[in-house]
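sorry for the late reply, my laptop died twice this morning and i had to redo everyting from scratch. anyway the thing you sent over, i finally got around to it. pasting the sequence first so we're on the same page, its 390 residues, then the predicted structure underneath. double check i copied it right bc i was rushing
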Amino acid sequence: MRRMRIGIFTDTYFPQVSGVATSIQTLKRELECQGHKVYIFTTTDPDATLEPDVYRFESIPFIFFKERRVAVATFSAVMRCVRNLDLDVVHTQTEFGMGIAGLHVARELQIPVIHTYHTWYEKYLHYVLNGHVVTKGMVQYLSRVFCNRCDAVISPSAMIADVLREYGVTKPITVIPTGVALPDTIAKPKLMALRQRLGLSADDFVEVSVNRIAEEKNLDTLIKAHAALQYEMPNAKLVLVGDGPEREALEELVALNELGDTVLFTGMIPHEEVAKYYQMADVYVNLSLTETQGVTFIEAVANGLPVVAIANDYLENLETIGHFGELIDSTAEYPDAIKQVYHHRERYTEAVGALKQAISAETFACAVLERYEAAKAQHLPVKRRRLPHL
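ok and here's the structure:
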């Protein structure tokens, strides 16, 4: 396979912390390891530092979601950067500012555009005046129009692929789960030191959850499920890694249920430090109903942790490779699932190990490259015409 020059267009990238940013950075690093050239076109950020091959364009905070930004750059400003890069393919990873710029660039350069559809927007409408301004119908329409402007679409799960087909997306959809860079094993003394810093003992059975602390992550339900577990496993401790708008309300819930000694909030942790929190724990837990690609699930497995989570399409697909944890249908099953992992931890070790290659960054990048090559082979230049503002 010849070396490719790839332009990734996204409104979300580090230092913003999210599954999307992690997925893009993982893809970029692995493609570069394989000898390809990757350019990132993204938004300005007050905390960003200069990085080679990362171009930032004027942006503003998203009005209903201040931690995210949307590009407001002109097409001419983007084209000035792109013109001499000799791109082979455009890969958009947002349906908004930089994604629309990516569509324009691909059309202008007569090259294929691949789109990754990351976010199941219908599950996030509560951020926009409780869904009274942006409706499900609008989300479906905008998603359909954007995706059908592309040569092909990548979905992180079969579930989201089905959703897009229901929306009326007719372009080819390829399911490619996000991969992760497999981490080094951290020495036990360092992990024990982290436990001590958090007030945890070697005998505690630690449930860890890595999330944005937000409504759609269903963390209030997780805390209540943990409270039910306390009656049978008083040594169980829940560590919530991350920060977000619901933290204060969740801290109040913890206090109300007198769980202050058993539920710990770490606040935001730099992404390069998160592996320590996975590896010092005994099980990864997540009761979110909105995950589309499950980056934290695969990060947990990559760090050797079994998983307890609400069953979904993505996790059930992973389970066909190995029995990496316990998938439950309701939160009432949570205590029994945790006890199952507690009493039979060794049962999951081999399955988790078998999954590592399947979820590796290398496997992920190779699948994306195959999609790029197929799109290039099938791409037919079209007459340039003005694209509508979506």
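Residues 89 and 207 are 42 Å apart (CA to CA).
thats about all i looked at so far, will dig more tmrw
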